[in-house]
Design brief:
The complex is a heterodimer of chains A (about 350) and B (about 325). By secondary structure, chain A is mostly helical. Chain A has helices at about 1-30, 35-45, 50-75, 85-100, 105-135, 140-160, 180-185, 195-210, 215-225, 225-230, 235-260, 275-285, 290-315, 320-330, 335-345. Chain B has helices at about 5-35, 40-60, 70-95, 100-120, 145-150, 155-175, 175-185, 190-195, 200-225, 235-245, 250-270, 285-300, and strands at about 135, 155. The chains are: A mainly alpha (about 350), B mainly alpha (about 325).
Chain lengths: ~350, ~325
Amino acid sequence: MQNNTNKMKFLVPLISVFLGLLIGGIIMLISGYPPIEAYAALFEGIFGESYYRGETIRQMSPLILSGLAVAFAFRTGLFNIGVEGQLLVGWLAAVYVGIFVDAPAIIHIPLAVLAAGVAGALWGSVPGILKARFKVHEVITTIMMNYIALYSTNEIIRNFMLAPGERTENVKESASLASPFLQELTDNSTLHFGIIIAIVAAVIMWFLLWRTTLGYELRAVGFNQHASQYAGINVSKNIVLSMAISGAFAGIAGSMEGLGTYQYMTINAGFTGVGFDGIAVALLGANSAIGVILGAALFGGLKIGALNMQAMAGVPTELVGIVIALIIFFVACSYLVHWLMNRVNRGGKI
Amino acid sequence: MSFMDILALIIPAAIVSAAPLIFTALGGVFSERSGVVNIGLEGLMLFGAFTGAVTIYYGEQFGLAGAAPWVSFVVAMIVGALFASIHAVASISLKADQVVSGVAINFLAVGLAIFLTKKIFNAGQTPVISERISKSDIPFLSDIPVIGKLFFSNAYLTSYLAVFVALIVWYVLYKTPFGLRLRSVGEHPMAADTMGINVKKMRYVGVLLSGALAGLGGAVYVASISGNFTHSTITGQGFMALAAMIFGKWHPLGALGAALFFGLAQAISISGAQIPGLQDIPKVFLLIAPYVLTILALAGLVGRADAPKALGTPYEKGKR
């Protein structure tokens, strides 16, 4: 039985990815695009040149962090759809520290990343407190907090940090994660040091969850709130903490954009999408640290490869969005996969 | 600027921006009252907007003229229901996490709509339509002093349709056996099942109706407000409709009131600069007002909002 569930843990994501790509291919076929050529261009666009590899890794760093944010909250039985908003406030906080603080890089970068984490944690703890204190479902509040974050950060940029071009100034060099060395290594991609922060964060998440008392309590609350309460665990405290830590990961994901990829923050007309992609990453990665990294690699790769797919095979990049949606859908319907597997295991007898 | 002028500026604008929200929020009421969470309203509305824009465009080509928008509403409702059936199959039959499935619906809708737009029109947006729902005065009613000018002149027919549909939904949910059954499977599916109500069937109906109404909401948005479909046509209106449904306490008339109120907030945020007294209020407060109010409502600070009891839990026969 144990062996079987372990096997399912790998099989469900794999089958989902396969089905997602398959249906994506069928959609291409129906709408008159060449699927094989398109997928070839897609994979070429991920692995073909060192530039593409650099871009994929760059794309991975915020995805890992937003995936960790969603996964961490999931472990406590909470669904954090608010990663997008927490990411925006984190982005703003990182850029603010990056612009207005003077310090040597060794202090400035950690300070800016920390500011992003704190901002995200504060933003994330609001739905946590509402859930713990008023029993308000976190899904709704986090969605609402996303919009509040979007409009508020835009207003703050507009009023206090505006530079020509609907954006802020660039962060100071001492706060930048950009790395000429990594860029050179990858044929002038936009790869920056953020990926190191992202992987360290993944290790921290694993350690927190599996090697500390706090993590034990958080997971216990996720399994069964009532049993945890009975065992003397403070459920309310854990809910707030979980949302705060989740928010901190999301906020740091924002600093990847602010200190790494863009070096500034724009007035956003809409959401970045990174936070929502985090849901897909966490689901596919079965809420484990290593799974999140793998999930982020897949989705980051698909997003970067889509550009080449559009250039070479003429298929709109949105196809990748469709494929990602299908993958989430199939992971969510793992009941179907389980059901199919049971049928197969019984030797095809129905 | 007199007080009446201010009202005449804001109220018609509020009613206009509220209409798509009302339809979509009513859709949410159907789904959630039957016990199925529908975060996918945003995606369903978006796909309705896409369908509406395409149907009206081709309707014009085929010479439907003024009837094109109305035809598009019907088509958008059908397509919306079909799209929602994915959510229904996942969350009712396959017992998927309803929130996750809704998220997938949102992703799928945005990807598919823009993919198809690019495929059909070779551009990032659909052509701008010429046959919009036009503003008109309601005969007789618009002649009523004060109220007539505010509520019944220079407004879109779809806005009144939205109010009318809200009344119908209220009647259906609270005054018919069907409505009682739909609500009962959302509150206590096992009790309903014991009484011989087909829980799965009722939930399917709830979700499909939510897709139809959200699709209609999207098409109305295109026909009355935006005039075409782009990637930025529907950005958050579906979530705002979700907020309206919750703020309205899962009640059709509550949702109607909340949607009108959110519409008012939007109208003020757009035309607030022309209004003395409101000029000084930063626009951001009006933009975030619907969301802040919804959170406060949920926290019980603006009247307690309680969700249907069985919301979000798949029903399994025989499970205690």
